[in-house]
From TrEMBL:
Keyword annotations from UniProtKB, A to Z: Signal
PANTHER family recorded: MALATE DEHYDROGENASE, MALATE DEHYDROGENASE (AFU_ORTHOLOGUE AFUA_2G13800)
Protein origin, superkingdom: Eukaryota
Protein's name in the database: Malate dehydrogenase
The organism of origin for this protein: Bombardia bombarda
Signal peptide: 1-18
Length: 243
């Protein structure tokens, strides 16, 4: 005769039931074809953010190949919306659509030089006042921080609202799925990435970042932009981990 308690404990150990006390650990999505290296078992899930901003590129001339300069994006905390989260979780379809919903439903949360001309941000002063993300029919999504490239081209995620920082470098990439949204300029979705610790002693409480479910962000051809900087709107999920 098995007691109810020992039955429940056995079921929990076997993973049959999710424990109501244990918080849910989200599972990183895959592209369906190429897999990025999975987080090591020692990595602890920390946050999922929506990033909304620009990828910027430079063209030497109209016949050259665009070279990535960096990226600028505001980050919003969608961790509470992850499907299955008690009370606040969205349906999988609504959650997975957040990058597209944000890309087409919100103006770019950056100080743009002249949005009637292009998507270039003001150099040295690209940020607007931090504000939460309000998408129709969804709970308010809290502002989390900023993503940018530092002076030495090192990607930084400064999660000011959480007191966390990730200074990282590209370790691996996977092409976005063929069905990914090509973005406002129709250029395509930037690859999914695994970004690992830069070892520049700039991180705080984070050491691993993934960019997944990208929409937009691929450079325009230099023939279109001519010489100079070209910025392309994008959204994505960033997943953050700590060792
Ligand atoms: C391109 O992005 C970087 C940040 O990643 C930013 O520092 C720089 O000002 C941007 N350049 C232009 C010309 O917009
Ligand atoms: C970095 O990428 C390589 C393969 O591209 C992989 O073998 C390695 O495990 C990755 N590093 C981490 C920390 O996951
Ligand atoms: C790392 O940075 C902290 C503060 O930002 C500093 O106190 C410490 O000395 C640095 N460590 C190394 C090895 O540079």
């Amino acid at each position: 005769m098995v007691s109810a308690k020992s039955f429940l404990l056995a079921a929990l150990a076997a993973g049959t039931y999710a424990s109501p006390c244990k918080s849910l650990t989200p599972t990183l999505p895959g592209t369906g074809t190429t897999s990025l290296p999975a987080p090591a078992p020692t990595e602890l899930f920390r946050r999922i953010a929506i990033g909304h901003g620009i990828q910027n590129y430079s063209c030497e001339s109209s016949t050259s190949t665009p070279v990535q300069l960096g990226a600028l994006a505001a980050l919003y905390d969608v961790t509470p919306l992850y499907p299955g989260t008690p009370r606040t979780g969205l349906s999988k379809a609504a959650f997975d659509a957040l990058p597209i919903t944000t890309l087409y439903g919100q103006s770019i949360p950056l100080n743009l030089v002249d949005p009637t001309v292009n998507y270039n941000a003001v150099v040295g002063n690209p940020w607007v006042a931090p504000a939460d993300l309000v998408l129709g029919g969804l709970p308010t999504i809290k502002f989390l921080g900023h993503h940018f490239f530092e002076i030495d081209n090192t990607p930084m995620f400064d999660l000011t609202a959480a007191g966390l920082k990730a200074s990282v470098a590209r370790n691996d990439s996977a092409a976005a799925p063929a069905t990914a949204d090509k973005g406002i300029l129709g250029t395509g979705a930037v690859p999914w990435l695994q970004l690992t610790e830069s070892n520049k002693n700039r991180s705080n409480g984070l050491n691993l970042v993934y960019r997944v479910v990208t929409a937009g962000g691929v450079a325009q051809s230099c023939l279109t932009t001519g010489a100079g900087v070209g910025s392309v709107p994008y959204t994505t999920f960033y997943w953050f981990y700590a060792a």
